[in-house]
Amino acid sequence: MAAETQATEGQTTSKGEAPIKPEYIIQREVNKAAATEAALPAEEESKGEKKSGQNKKRAAKNKPKPRQNAERLCRSVAIGEECTIGAACKSSHDVAAFMEKKEPDLGLQCPIFDEFGKCVFGLRCRYAMAHTTAEFTQVVDNEKLQKTQPNQVLNQMSRDMQIRLRKHQEKFPRTQEFDVQWQASMKDNGAQAGSANTEESARDAQDDTVKTEQASKRQRKARGRIDYRGKTYLAPLTTVGNLPFRRVCKEFGVNITCSEMAIAGNIIQGQGSELALLKRHASEDIFGVQLAGNRADIVGKAAEFVSNNCDVDFIDLNMGCPIDMAFNNGGGSALLAHPRKIERIVRTMLAATDCDITVKFRTGISRDVNVAHKLVPQFASWGTALGTLHGRSRQQRYTKVADWDYIGECQNVAETMPLFGGGDVMSWEDYWGHMETQKQCDGIMIGRGALIKPWLFREIEERRVWDISASERLDMLRQFTRFGMEHWGTDTQGIANVRRYLLEWQSFLHRYIPAGILEVLPQKINERPPAFVGRNDLETLLSSPLASDWVKISEMLLGPVPDDFTFVPKHKSNSYE
Fold first, then answer.
1. Which residues are catalytic?
2. N or C: which end of the chain has fewer CB within 10 A?
3. CA 120 – CA 127 distance, rounded (Å)
4. Beta strand 280-281 with 314-319: parallel, antiparallel or unpaired?
5. In this structure, are strands 386-390 and 280-281 parallel, antiparallel, or unpaired?
6. 526 and 575 Cβ atoms separated by less than 8 Å
7. Using one digit for the tens of pLDDT, what is the confidence trace for 243-294?
């Protein structure tokens, strides 16, 4: 009788809760306890601070304890080569001492050595014994090394290029020339000149800028060659949209990928962390870089740099980011209040580059004041290759339901420019409903839906629900860690980065509800799950909202965490509210 009562209580779901089969629901008190622990990962928030948005004081907590130079083995010595720095090198050259204090290896197979035939981390690798002799020399598989395809990761900036940017030695002639001509056109027409005259003058200035023989050849080769319609598009996702994650999504069949949002000013200043965002894996066959900024000259220079030095198919202008840091600086969604500034930025990007220019934007800034329908025809007239509209305002961020009817209205005025929509798509039914039944857009950009279930792209292609098993989901995470070690490295710092990004991703992944335990399909992105158990222990673990359980999952793949390890999630998924 008690069991029947518990099932009956579990079957009654609150508004906004996902409909899970009653035999998998556990007592509601457990759900409250889990939610409390998940919502209060940091001491600061237990003192009454705001519990929505991002954990803004998490960075120092998640940062691994830095090693002293004397504790680190010189990179050259680690691979058996002579140190080129000599006496000035601050790292240790004592191999025996390093090996004595080194943390235990994490396994018997090094992912980098297995893939490429040589590990560039040598003795520093946490799988070093897989490619190290008893004399501490490095093994090289020459046959595999010769077969390995070069340049798997593109757009890697050299140290010399970074120095040139920092010293302001890099030139941006196309941006500067267009800027001069734009200002001249404004002066000639007057500040209150009609929009038509201004647009015509600016367009003439753009044409004059690119009419060199070399530029014309590049233009014919690059711009306008991609038909975006009908392709699936993985949204640019800060932090979690890293290169290894994009590779996982490519394995599941996504067509278009884009870098994480890069700040234009940081790129032209040569900041290493920002330049790293430009990297592209060879498997990303349609790839773009997203830039954010609020000044036409700065964004134009960054776009010109990317166009000249990177292998990209398009450059996207971010006008959708709702976070305070971007908005308060006049970038991201704040640009929606300044259409003339948008025009200048977009036209500058077009004049300074050879690839497609695309734009991502929201319905507006305020919830009840839509402006996108006024901007879409202008984007098309300026020559933008693609527009992507998130069906929410900046004020809404990721709460409430995306307005797909409004996206459909905007598509009707997009003229020849393809318009993609975005918001709340988490199933193949959602996708094809917007694409074919409602005919509201030319394609769909998917963000949170892909973070929660990256296999969504395969479901869309095959038009079926995939009741993926817990072991298959763990294999996906194992693949991510392998891609991550190839990208960030297999030394202690590299493993720490892989673990950090895996845990950040898990803050979304745990929200997936296995299809086999749902009473009603498909799962809706804004429906929160009541506390439930999976069909086996692993499925239950993968669905846990507790950061401590996410750490356990990382230990299954990357070995035990250091004694001083801490983790505070960046995203608290306030779309449940």
1. 321
2. N
3. 12
4. unpaired
5. unpaired
6. yes
7. 999 999 999 999 999 999 999 999 999 999 999 999 999 999 999 999 999 9
Q: Determine which helix (DSSP H) or strand (DSSP E) holds 356, and give its type and residue range.
A: strand 356-362
Q: Are 543 and 510 in contact (CB under 8 A)?
A: yes
Do the beta carbons of residue 336 and residue 375 sit within 8 Å? yes
Cα separation of 562 and 88, whole Å? 31
What is d(CA 220, CA 235) in angstroms, rounded to the nearest whole number?
27
SS3 305: helix
Query: What are the DSSP E strand ranges found in 433-546?
Result: 443-446
Q: pLDDT tens, 412-433?
A: 999 899 999 999 999 999 999 9
Has residue 491 got a pLDDT over 80?
yes
* Residue pLDDT, tens place only, 206-218: 444 444 334 433 4
CB 255 within 8 A of CB 286: yes
Q: Is the pTM of this model over 0.85?
A: yes
Q: Which residues neighbour 257 within 8 Å (Cβ) at sequence distance 6 or greater?
A: 234, 246, 249, 250, 284, 286, 287, 288
Torsion of CA 492, 498, 502, 503, to 10 degrees: 40
DSSP 361-403: EES-SSTT---HHHHHHHHHHHT-SEEEEESS-TTTTT-S---
Cβ of 160: how many Cβ atoms within 10 Å?
9
Question: How many whole angstroms from its chain centre is CA 35?
Answer: 26
Alpha-carbon torsion (436, 440, 443, 447), positive or negative: negative
Using the structure block, give the residue that is written with the tokens 């014919």. Answer: 220
Q: Both tokens of residue 101?
A: 């204090």
- Integer Rg of the chain from CA: 26
DSSP assignment letter at 310: S
Q: At what angle do helices 547-558 and 492-509 cross, to 10 degrees?
A: 130
- Residue 151, token pair as written in the block: 């340049």
pLDDT higher than 50, residue 49: no
Strand partners, 287: 257
Counting every residue, how long is the chain?
577
Residue 357, token pair as written in the block = 């220019």
Q: Report d(CA 317, CA 418) in Å as an integer.
A: 16
Torsion, Cα 273 277 281 284, to 10 degrees, reads: 170
